Amino acid sequence: MTSTPQRGASTSRTAPPRVRLVDVAREAGLSKTTVSAALNGTGRLSPAVREKARETARRMGYRPNATARQLRAGRARLIGYVVGEFAWRPWTYLESPYFAQLTSATAASALRHGYALVMLPAGSLHSEWADLPLEAVVVADPVDHRVVDDLLAARIPVVSDGSVDGRPGAHWVDVDAEEAVHGTLEHLAAQGARRTALVMSGSTTRFHREVLTAYRDWCAARGCTPRVTVTDDAGNGPAVRAVESALTAAERPDALFVVEEVSPPLVLDAARRHGYDVPGDLLVVCVSEDDTAEHTEPPISTLSLQPREIAEAGIELLVAALENGDEAPSGRLVATRLLVRESSRRPSRTVAASPQAECTSVPPT
C-alpha cells in the first residue's frame, strides 16, 4: 500500500548535478582547454569554435565557479556603493531621479568592466562593510568624511566628489557648481529676470555649499539682493512648501531657480496656485533629472548634473586604479547641461538692455 505524504511534510529532492567544464567540452566535442579559452575570451580560436563552445555552455546552463575563480585570482571584483545623504532613511535615495540614474549607471558601468556593485545603506558604518571583500567604493555626495576616512584607512580605493582631491587612494568626479549656477542665472537675466529666488536643500554636501556661494557671489556682483529659501527635509512635500514660501515673499520673484530635487509639475502647480503665469510672470529652472519636465505645459527648463556621465567616469577611475595598482589621486570634471525649454523663455517680451538696471531690490521679509 502506497502511503500518501502528509500535508506539511517535507519532501527531499535531489538537486541536479552542477554542469562542469569537462561536461561542456564533452558535449561540444572540444578539449577542456579549448572550451576554457573560448569562455574566457582568450586563445587563438576560430569564431566558429568559440561560438560553438559558448552556445553549448549556454544551452547546458554552465556557470563558472565564482568562488574558485576568485581564489585563483585573489580578487572578489566587488565595488561598494554608498550615498552620503539621507542617513536617517538609508534607502530614500533610490526614490530620487538623480540618485536612481547615478546608481543604475554605476552598476551598469561596473558590470561592463567585470565588477559587481554592492549597494550599501546611506551613511554606512564601518561595521556594515568591514567584512565584505570590497575592492573599491563609490561614495556619492558625502556630507562628511567619516566614511571616506574609514575606507582609505582600510586601504580601499574611493571615488567621491572634489573634496577628496589630493588624498592617496582617493579619486574624484565632480561638476563645476559655480559655472553651472552662474550660467543658469545669466540665462534668466538675459530673459529679463531681476528678482531670481533660489530654492535649495539645507544639505551640507560640497555641491550645495558651492551652489549657495555661487548664487550669493553672482547677486553681489550685480547688486541684487539674494533670495534664498531652504527646505526643512528631503522629498516633494518639503520642497513644494519651500517653493510656496519663495513665491509668497513680500516682493514677488520674477524667476525661480529650484536646486532642491522636486517633481517639476509640482513647481508649476504651486506657481499657479499663487497666481503666477509661467513664463509670463515667472521664469522657472529646476535642477532635475526627472523626465516629466519636458512633458509639462509649459515644458520646464532643467539643469542636468549628468549622473550617467558621473557614474561612468567614477568607475573608469576606480578600474584604472585597481588594474594598474596606482594609488596616486586622480579626478575628472563633468560638464553640466542646461536644457532651456519654454518655462524660462519670454519670447514676446522686450528684455531690458542692462541686467543690472533693476537689481537693487528690498530683501523679502
Describe the structure.
This protein folds into three domains: 21-64, lambda repressor-like DNA-binding domains (434 Repressor (Amino-terminal Domain), Orthogonal Bundle), CATH 1.10.260.40; 78-175 and 308-336, Rossmann fold (3-Layer(aba) Sandwich); 177-304 and 339-344, Rossmann fold (3-Layer(aba) Sandwich). By secondary structure, it is an alpha/beta fold. The chain has helices at 21-28, 32-40, 47-60, 66-73, 97-112, 126-129, 146-153, 177-190, 206-222, 236-247, 264-273, 307-324; strands at 78-83, 116-119, 136-140, 158-160, 170-175, 196-200, 228-230, 255-258, 283-287, 301-304, 330-334, 337-339. The strands form two sheets. The protein has a six-stranded parallel sheet, with helices on both faces.
Observed structural traits:
Rossmann fold; 15% strand; 365 residues; 6-stranded parallel sheet; alpha/beta; 6-stranded mixed sheet; disordered C terminus; 434 Repressor (Amino-terminal Domain)
Query: So, the CATH homologous superfamily of the largest domain?
Result: Response regulator
The fraction of residues assigned to DSSP E strands is 5-15%
Q: Mean pLDDT, rounded to whole units? A: 85
Which term fits the overall shape? elongated
CATH class of the largest domain: Alpha Beta
First and last CA, distance:
90 Å
Tell me the Rg in angstroms: 27 Å
Structural class, from helix and strand content? alpha/beta
Percent range of helical residues: 25-40%
Q: What are the low-pLDDT stretches, counting only 5+ consecutive residues below 50?
A: 8-12, 350-365
Our count of helices gives 12
Q: How many domain units?
A: 3
Sequence of strands across the biggest β-sheet = 2-1-3-4-5-11
Please tally the β strands and state the result: 12
What is the CATH topology assignment of the largest domain? Rossmann fold
